[in-house]
Write a structure and sequence with these properties.
The structure is a single chain. With 260 residues, the chain is mainly alpha-helical. It has a 3-stranded antiparallel beta sheet with strand order 1-2-3, with helices on one face. A hairpin with a 5-residue loop joins β2 and β3. α5 packs antiparallel against α6, α6 packs antiparallel against α7 and α6 runs parallel beside α9. The longest helix is centred in the C-terminal third of the chain and has 28 residues.
Amino acid sequence: MNSMTCDVSTGEATEFLANYSGLLFGSGSTCVRLEKNVKRMAQSIGLMAEITILPRHIHLTIRRAGSPEVLTSITSIRDVPINFNVITSLSRLSWALADREITFREGIERFGEIERMGGTAPGVILLLVSLANASFCRLFEGDLTAMAIVFVATFAGFFLKQTMAIKHVDARIITAVCAFVSAVIASADNLFSLGASPMITLGTSVLYLIPGIPLINSFCDMIDRHYICAFGRLMNAVVTLCCLSFGLCLGMWLMNMGMF
């Protein structure tokens, strides 16, 4: 066996692959990417990996070809924000190991660096999300006044979302509260007759809460026949949409938007 592949034991490799799986899936990866990345790295050191992916846990079985030894690890999926930088870095790591550019021991060290990787500054994300939502308002033919109100509504709602997330408030409560706050602010367009497109203002003010990535990943998992994960992700997205709708409707009712 190549000397580059013998720098870790089967147990160390199993622990690494389990931690890798939990972080990759929690960061927003699809099931097929997870399977390919883990099996690619396992094969690089002469191991065979079998993966069972569940909505909240990953069951990983590792064995070495020609050996009766079998190791099994069950790991929880990391509860971390969706981060495409982490997904990209982890995928590059898998290819670096498969192409033998680094040893497995170096790969474990690099994984630790990826775990500690900081995301984009919260203030930058807050500004970009607010600008993006205002742009969506314009895309749906909202006027400049509507865009300004949507920017303020999104800024307030997303800032509240970031603050509540830091305090580890339940994500469903966060969605409902933020939708309510954004809807109340956006209703100012109708309440004070500020612009010509009040309903567009209201509708686009909560778009930042739409669970687009879980919905897309659910569809991708279904195509790849990972039906349990697809259903789990779909249900999470549906619950999020229900919470969003509750907050939006409550805000509309409170501000007498004429929908009830």
